[in-house]
Structures are given as C-alpha cells and as structure tokens.
C-alpha cells in the first residue's frame, strides 16, 4: 500500500493518511478482508507518531471502512469499496459546487467553467491509445 505524507502541507498528516487509505479502497486497490500494516509498522514506514496512525485507524473504523480484530490486526471492512466510493463522489460533488460558485463570482460563464474542467481533465488523464484504422480486408493501415 503506497501512502505519501507531505509534512509541510496545510492538510493534517492524519487526514492525508486517512484520505489515501479511503482512496485505495474506492479504487479497489484495497479489498474487503485485506490486512493493513500494524500501527507500529505504518508509523515507522511513514516516519510519523504511532498515535497518529492509531487515530486514523480508529476514525476509519467509525466510518465503517476498517475493522479492528483483537489480536489479529486491522482489516478492510466488508463493502468498504462501495461506501468509500459513494463518500468520495459526494465530497467531489461538493468541491465542484464550491469551485462553480467561485467561478460564477469571478464572472465566468458555464461554457468557460466547462472549458477549465476539460483542460484540467486533459492534463491528468493518460493519453488514449488510438488503434490504427482497419481496412475492409482487416489489415491495419
């Protein structure tokens, strides 16, 4: 599980870690029943305090994404992918609404906002591999 912590960020470290674990669940990189590193292991790997990791795990347990099993460890909860994806979609919708409000306050039109989003998507999406067109004989041209 790849987690990156930006120590100079305005976003608290615990929020960064929780968000990345939730994103891994939403993306299917972590599946129901997968075991997470122990609090001690993850704290050492990320060079953060063990209490930070413990708080993250406890928060994600409360949110239903993780479950802690006494003596066994911390695991991804059943149906965590669906819950995490729904939560991220809701949060993303809220962020888009906030950005739309800001754009409108700046005097941008709906078309200009769409253009900004399209350009942003072009910058983050990998290029689409285009297959060569096939002729009627089935041979690529």
UniProtKB/TrEMBL annotation:
<keyword id="KW-0805">Transcription regulation</keyword>
<dbReference type="GO" id="GO:0003700">
    <property type="term" value="F:DNA-binding transcription factor activity"/>
</dbReference>
<keyword id="KW-0238">DNA-binding</keyword>
<dbReference type="InterPro" id="IPR000524">
    <property type="entry name" value="Tscrpt_reg_HTH_GntR"/>
</dbReference>
<keyword id="KW-0804">Transcription</keyword>
<dbReference type="InterPro" id="IPR036388">
    <property type="entry name" value="WH-like_DNA-bd_sf"/>
</dbReference>
<feature type="domain" description="HTH gntR-type">
    <location>
        <begin position="11"/>
        <end position="79"/>
    </location>
</feature>
<dbReference type="GO" id="GO:0003677">
    <property type="term" value="F:DNA binding"/>
</dbReference>
<dbReference type="InterPro" id="IPR036390">
    <property type="entry name" value="WH_DNA-bd_sf"/>
</dbReference>
<dbReference type="Pfam" id="PF00392">
    <property type="entry name" value="GntR"/>
</dbReference>
<protein>
    <submittedName>
        <fullName>HTH-type transcriptional repressor YtrA</fullName>
    </submittedName>
</protein>
């Amino acid at each position: 599980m790849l987690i990156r912590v930006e120590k100079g960020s305005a976003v608290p470290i615990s929020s960064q870690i929780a968000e990345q674990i939730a994103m891994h669940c939403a993306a299917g990189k972590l599946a129901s029943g997968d075991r997470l590193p122990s609090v001690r292991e993850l704290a050492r790997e990320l060079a953060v305090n063990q209490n930070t990791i413990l708080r993250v795990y406890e928060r994600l347990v409360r949110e239903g994404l993780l479950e802690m099993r006494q003596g066994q460890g911390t695991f991804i909860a059943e149906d965590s992918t669906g819950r995490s994806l729904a939560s991220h979609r809701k949060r993303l919708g809220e962020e888009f609404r906030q950005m739309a409000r800001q754009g409108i306050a700046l005097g941008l039109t709906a078309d200009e906002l769409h253009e900004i989003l399209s350009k942003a998507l072009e910058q983050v999406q990998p290029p689409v591999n285009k297959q060569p067109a096939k002729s009627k004989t089935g041979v690529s041209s």
